[in-house]
Amino acid sequence: MASLGHVKPQTLHFEEALPLRSGATLANYDIVYETYGTLNAARSNAILVCHALNASHHVAGTHEGVEKSEGWWDNLIGPGKPLDTDKFFVIGINNPGSCFGSTGPMHVNPATGKVYGADFPVVTVHDWVDAQARVLDRLGIGQLAGVLGGSLGGMQALDWSLRYPERLRHCIAIATAPSLSAQNIAFNEVARRAIITDPDFHGGHFYAHGVVPKRGLRVARMIGHITYLSDDVMEQKFGRQMRATELGYSTQDIEFQIESYLRYQGDKFSEYFDANTYLLITRALDYFDPATGHGGDLSRTFASARCKYLVASFTTDWRFSPARSREIVKALLDNKLDVSYAEIDAPHGHDAFLLDDPRYHGVLKAYFERMAKECAA
């Protein structure tokens, strides 16, 4: 399988205000995106990839002059890969509120001339889908072959099928849920409190103080990372391995290898991710619940859906468990929609959707091959 090689991000500017679910608006904003492959003459082979919490528009390929810059789904997308860019035109879009190029808390608010910081408006999955639709309008793509996403990206894919049912033919939702459980909301809240209570946070306006709330970001990432891995994987990789041959009898130093790993992940995350963005995106996760407008009835929620679906889950994913995916599948079947479901026995936990599991990639490859035949027909 060939590599996509170097790819370049592109930027679109929008002056027309984007109405947000909160009642606020976002005007004069930029959206950064990347594309891979070629749009066919019928403009029928486009697939939108929606990113999850700490990812971006850079889905595949590499950035010239940047080491270790492979896109976050590079193992899945490219020539000859399960999502084959010789057959599909793939689009990755960075959502508003992110910290990877699209307008977010780190940018200047044109209305005030000051950095948004904590004043950046709260955004939801619905708002992101509306922003993505505007990008596709600019690209001249009226209907997508499909929308693909994992985790929070899967929520966006589901929302696409509900908000714009006529604009996609397939929804591929992986390791996701129709809403967060109370436990998931609780994890998000603990992570947010770690950031908000960091003395360097300054109410979200830390940019003006020339500091970054790295301590809070480190803890937030450590909490999140624990939930992305299964107990089996953590035991296999680390067990009770010690850093030294003897106990140090310290309550503050690193004693176990798992502690070292979590601190490494936290340190790395705090160097590139924005604290306000973390608050915004985790809150968007909390808010997502399309059944709210239908009396909590998920089957009624999907009554307006028209596309075909592939839903996939992983047995050891306890953050977005297979039971949550089966809720989606039941709602789709209640509406007699065309749905394929794969529950993959993988040991990796929630992170499995990012990894190169042959059974998982086999399911996606077969599904995309059927989609490619539709596009060619």
From TrEMBL:
It is an enzyme of class 2 (transferase). Pathway: Amino-acid biosynthesis; L-methionine biosynthesis via de novo pathway; O-succinyl-L-homoserine from L-homoserine: step 1/1. Residues 45-355 form the AB hydrolase-1 domain. It holds the Pfam family Abhydrolase_1. The keyword Transferase applies. One of its GO terms (molecular function) is homoserine O-acetyltransferase activity. Its main location: cytoplasm. Keywords: Acyltransferase, Amino-acid biosynthesis, Cytoplasm, Methionine biosynthesis, Transferase. It is found in: Cytoplasm. InterPro entries: AB_hydrolase_1, AB_hydrolase_fold, HAT_MetX-like. Transfers a succinyl group from succinyl-CoA to L-homoserine, forming succinyl-L-homoserine. Homodimer. This is Homoserine O-succinyltransferase. The gene is metXS.
